[in-house]
Amino acid sequence: MEKLVINGGNALRGRVKISGAKNAVLPIIAATLLGQDTPSRLDEVPALDDVHTIAEVIGSLGVDARFDPEAHQFFVDSAGIKYCEAPYDLVRKMRASFLIMGPLLARCGKARISLPGGCAIGTRPIDLHLKGFEALGAEIEIGHGFIDANAPHGLKGARIYLDFPSVGATENILMAASMAEGQTVLENPAQEPEIIDLANYLNVMGAKIRGAGTNVLKIEGVPKLKGAAYTVIPDRIEAGTYMVAAAMTRGDVYIENAISEHLKPVIAKLKEAGVIIDEDVDGIRVRCDKATKAVDIKTMPYPGFPTDMQAQFMAMLAVSEGTGLVTETVFENRFMHVDELKRMGASIKIDGRTSVVEGVSKLTGCQVKATDLRAGAAMVLAGLVAEGETQIGYIHHIDRGYDHLVPKLVQLGADIRRVEE
Ligand code: EPZ
């Protein structure tokens, strides 16, 4: 097991380049299963453990999948899918494996996937995914820890309303509907930039999808899709994480490749906290030369404040001037980082779905752990400003979603290294 060791107090300065978006590339790799006749080549694919995992998942279906992390390229030839079943150990490792159900139903008319189970931040149900598949004509059976979906007569377009704009359910239904017979109308879908990226890739494959990024998706099913070349969008959450790091350490960082349009709530909240933000076509400059002011945040589906930035902002509020309220409306248990931050001296009280964060003058370094991906990022941010040494364990959570985190932070002047436990 490895851990991160950080000595806090350095202001971050310089440039950092943002990698491809984890939450765009995972559904897009699942969508490569829909491509027949020609292979797919994906560029700007981030070197993340989750990408290696989904490569294993689609490889287990008998598909030729090759990931080159150095070149940030992913190749898939899914002309022939031999198996339509994803094993428990892979699905348990990463919930996003469930995103292969839509493509398998569309391509093979059946899919057998183990129930994804919950994770640290919540029960993570899949009822909306299954409701969509049934609306498209699939028969769903759940038993012995597996979900069996069958559409022996193929999928038929339908009008579907999502009770909650679930990102995964929107993606799974979008992929299934792209090859269903007739039109599908999906109302109240997720509107995240990653949904638009998936729809763009599917359309390059020959799909007919309109309305991605709005509150109604219209899909005209087509009988066949072909593999295609595609470049994944930059990761707005990785970008947001470095923006908060620049603000907390009172530095001056240029976040190259960040797309401001994808980060409006994060930019607005950082400006409210007194951070200087300059946006241009190639990226975003973040400067701060004093303590940030406390702000209130409330996570919402896009275009609201992203839940994946909640933990990072809480780390910033822990050392801001004043008291900030953090309300998490998307997941029911996404405050696992609170206890870890309190070990470092943060003053936080949880009251239901809201955490009251009273800024303190300083945090002190100590041993903490990453409880999940974004909580781990929050602990890194806290360590960057804490007095003394912070050691972060269970960093496999962080490796799932941050590409070359340590080298990027070292290059910005942070005193951080990976060591064996
Ligand atoms: C995606 O997860 C992201 N993961 C998450 O990022 C992100 O936090 C989340 O969307 C919200 O933006 C990937 O894209 C791989 P949801 P997903 O379905 O699709 C409930 C990170 O840190 N729900 O939008 O699982 C669910 O319980 C990760 O990068 C149902 O009730 O999120 C949750 O409360 C963490 N029934 C809410 O919706 C369903 O069928 C949001 O879930 C599906 C979801």
Structural description of this entry:
It is built from 14 helices and 26 strands. By secondary structure, the protein is an alpha/beta fold. The strands form 7 sheets. Strands 24-25-1-26 form a 4-stranded mixed beta sheet, with helices on one face. A hairpin with a 4-residue loop joins strand 5 (64-68) and strand 6 (73-77). The longest helix is centred in the middle third of the chain and has 13 residues, at 236-248. The chain is elongated. The termini are close together. The model has no long low-confidence stretch (mean pLDDT 96). Bound molecules: ligand EPZ. Ligand EPZ binds at residues 22-23, 26, 95-96, 122, 124-129, 164, 166-169, 190, 307-308, 330-331, 373-374, 401.
What topology emerges from the helices and strands here?
Elements: E1 2-7, E2 13-17, H1 22-31, E3 35-36, E4 40-43, H2 49-59, E5 64-68, E6 73-77, E7 85-86, H3 88-93, H4 101-108, E8 110-114, H5 127-135, E9 139-143, E10 146-150, E11 159-161, H6 167-177, E12 183-187, H7 193-204, E13 208-210, E14 216-220, E15 225-226, E16 229-231, H8 236-248, E17 252-256, H9 264-272, E18 276-280, E19 283-287, E20 297-298, H10 310-318, E21 323-327, H11 337-343, E22 347-351, E23 354-358, E24 367-369, H12 373-385, E25 389-393, H13 396-399, H14 405-411, E26 415-420
Parallel strand pairs: 2-17, 3-15, 4-16, 7-8, 11-12, 20-21, 24-25
Antiparallel strand pairs: 1-25, 1-26, 4-6, 5-6, 8-10, 9-10, 12-14, 13-14, 17-19, 18-19, 21-23, 22-23
Helix pairs in contact: 1-2, 1-7, 4-6, 5-6, 6-7, 8-12, 10-12
The site of ligand EPZ has 25 residues, from helix 1, helix 5, helix 6 and helix 12.
